[in-house]
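Dissemination and training. As part of the outreach component of the grant, students in the summer workshop were shown how a complex can be specified as a set of sequence lines and then modelled as a single object. The example used during the hands-on session is reproduced here so that future cohorts can follow it. Participants entered these lines:
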Amino acid sequence: MSSNVLRVADFSIFPGPRYEVLGPASGEEFRDTKLLPALREHGANLIIDLDGVISYGSSFLEESFGGAVRSGIDPAVLLKVIENIICNDEPTLKFEIESYVKEQTSQL
Amino acid sequence: MKKCTEDRRRHQLIRQGQLRRWLKRNKWANLRESSRKNSSRKSKPRKILIAPQHIDLYRKDNYEALCSFLIEFRSAASQNSGVIVSFRNTETITAAGGILFLSEVDRAVTKYGRQRVKAIRPPSTTAKHGRKIQLVESILNQIGFFTLLGDKNRNCPTYHNVECWRSAQGIKADGQVAGELLNTVPAEFLDQDKLKGLYRGVIEALSNSVEHAYPSGRSDGRDALDRRWWMFTAITESALVVLVCDLGVGIPVTIKNTQPRGFLQHLLSMVRLGNANDPDNATDADLIEAATLVKRTRTAKTHRGLGGSDLRQLVEGSKAIPSTKNSGLSIYSNKGRFRLYHRDGTGITSEKRDHRNSILGTIVEWSIEVNV
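and obtained this result:
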């Protein structure tokens, strides 16, 4: 069983655009290759660490986390994970990601 | 046959001691004949274009002059004879003017080859104390203009501000390219909060360029399929500026293609006085401003269109990140310019204007006042 800590900085310290077709280190790539597998393995016990990167575009975050809801992840599990998210570099990221998940949930 | 006759004549003259005079007379005749043949094969000379006195977009008159110059440049570069750009009158290059100028020349060189475009370097000016100043040439060296043409950079003085000018380009929204360019800005000019705000905006601008700027050919008629973006970071006399430029169809076109008409009318009602919200009658500046507000309105029902707030965040701030004092966002696209700025003491204001000429593309610029 792999660690239940998912560090975005291990994926890239330069989070990119929304879609893979637009450029490297996209939200789509992060979601499909890192986030979804980790959520399926660890569920609500997953710890996501957002620190150590230059910054995040809103499109990257929405495609990663809002896109996880669109991909079938239970919003309740995702919101639980977001409660424990590590984001000391930019504390407001937690609330921003939460808003994307809630907004996507309301459109289901 | 003619050669046999000439040889026979030559031998006769040798016998008669008149060879030297004969050779001289025929030499000039042969030269005239050679010249006549060569002149009929001469190609059309290169067109010489005088670059504007101010390569700049900030002032309206300079904007129109630069756009007019670029119309002529594109036409001349497309001719087989090519073009020479003379900088003999150029006194200043500003960041926005510089990035547009470089990207247009780069596009032409990529399409037609280096041999089509040549340059005459700017003259040096003399300061009060008699020292020569070569600021324009220094900037052109720094942004890689002469390297682009295949010329070597000439030795000229380095200037502290100019050394901080950096450029990059690409065809994908590559955060690493953008981030590494931002990291070249000295830390004294860019703290972590501002760096994060700038990166957010830049990655969004690059994404927009890659996704929307080039759905079709550019309307300059040159049929050059070039999907690049260009990025500058520069320290001017009083500000750090970061710019992203593309030579695509422009925001006024893409917003009409990507947003439903009814929603676009709603956005225009927010940015235009009165009830004039017909997208077909909106100016380019109105459409640019509307594009930055796409996610702000609750009418938007999709998860897309978040980037407008990213572009504005450095200036306006967000729930937890304060706005940056003495900062600005300027977006030039086709004929329009929209500007949002925060002046210490007066808060956040916006202005917009439209021009006679189009830059045929988009430039997004962030500026932060710094002590240089």
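Residues 27-42 of chain A form the longest helix (16 residues). Students were then asked to discuss how this feature might be tested experimentally.
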